[in-house]
Amino acid sequence: MLNFDWLRGVSPAAAKLVFLTIFIVSGLLVLMIPKKSILEGVEDPRWWHNLKLWALGVLAIIFTIYSIF
Q1: ∠ at Cα 66 (19, 12), nearest 5°?
Q2: Residue range 7-63, pLDDT digits in tens
Q3: How far apart are CA 34 and CA 25, in angstroms?
Q4: Which residue, of 26, 32, 34, 35, is most buried by count of CB atoms within 10 Å of its CB?
Q5: Three-state secondary structure readout of the chain
Q6: What confidence score (pLDDT) does residue 36 get?
Q7: For the whole prediction, is pTM greater than 0.70?
């Protein structure tokens, strides 16, 4: 099976920091997507058509859950 003995020396705080950093980097990558490509094909764009907002909202929820627990 999988052998994760090499992670034994990593503290829980360091592991939490790594995962939270991954969520922050993911959010920054989402922000880099051009709005033109997100709203392509939408004739009358509304604010809720912006997938950046939905992605950032989901990432914020996951970030909050991971930071609390």
Answers
A1: 60
A2: 889 999 999 999 999 999 999 999 999 988 888 888 888 888 888 999 999 999 999
A3: 17
A4: 26
A5: CCCCHHHCCCCHHHHHHHHHHHHHHHHHHHHCCCHHHHCCCCCCCCHHHCHHHHHHHHHHHHHHHHHHC
A6: 86
A7: yes
